[in-house]
């Protein structure tokens, strides 16, 4: 899918400490409470609690990065890769992706993931990306597969929204 002509301008760039407040605002509005994500409050908590220097600390860890998708001055998407601090798991990055709902199916997610993969290749630390997606998010699953992610397993009843359970599908992609 090409980038939609409805998007006037798309810039994808690495976040800096100056972006802290804008990232917090984006997460509050679009991230942690979304009914379509597999991310809970705990996963977004670290990003919301960014104190002075915390974003820089996250970015300075081997392989970690935060990418912003911007249209004009507005964040319309966010991609976070976090790796373990331990040597034996440092090569694995956990990808957290969020696209503002009014930009779904416009190619923003594809662009953000492709840039994330490129960043991982350039840094040379992350050799495998993992992510999870709710079983009923078929368009997301197709996007991940089209970008080389493969299904690795299922976590049954992983997400509960308003008393309804959803399984999460685990995906992985080798970088090298």
TrEMBL record:
<dbReference type="InterPro" id="IPR016181">
    <property type="entry name" value="Acyl_CoA_acyltransferase"/>
</dbReference>
<dbReference type="InterPro" id="IPR000182">
    <property type="entry name" value="GNAT_dom"/>
</dbReference>
<feature type="domain" description="N-acetyltransferase">
    <location>
        <begin position="10"/>
        <end position="176"/>
    </location>
</feature>
<dbReference type="GO" id="GO:0016747">
    <property type="term" value="F:acyltransferase activity, transferring groups other than amino-acyl groups"/>
</dbReference>
<dbReference type="Pfam" id="PF00583">
    <property type="entry name" value="Acetyltransf_1"/>
</dbReference>
<protein>
    <recommendedName>
        <fullName>N-acetyltransferase domain-containing protein</fullName>
    </recommendedName>
</protein>
């Amino acid at each position: 899918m090409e980038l939609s002509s409805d998007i006037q301008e798309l810039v994808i760039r690495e976040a800096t400490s100056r972006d802290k407040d804008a990232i917090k605002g984006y997460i509050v509005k679009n991230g942690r409470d979304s009914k379509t994500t597999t991310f809970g409050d705990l996963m977004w908590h670290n990003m919301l609690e960014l104190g002075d220097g915390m974003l820089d600390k996250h970015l300075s860890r081997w392989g970690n990065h935060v990418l912003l998708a911007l249209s004009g001055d507005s964040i319309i998407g966010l991609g976070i890769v976090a790796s373990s601090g331990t040597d034996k798991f440092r090569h694995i990055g956990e990808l957290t992706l969020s696209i503002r709902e009014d930009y779904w199916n416009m190619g923003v997610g594809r662009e953000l993931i492709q840039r994330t993969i490129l960043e991982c290749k350039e840094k040379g630390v992350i050799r495998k990306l993992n992510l999870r997606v709710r079983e009923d998010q078929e368009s997301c699953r197709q996007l991940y597969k089209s970008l080389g992610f493969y299904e690795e397993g299922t976590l049954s009843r992983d997400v509960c929204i308003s008393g309804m359970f959803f399984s999460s599908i685990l995906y992985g992609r080798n970088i090298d």
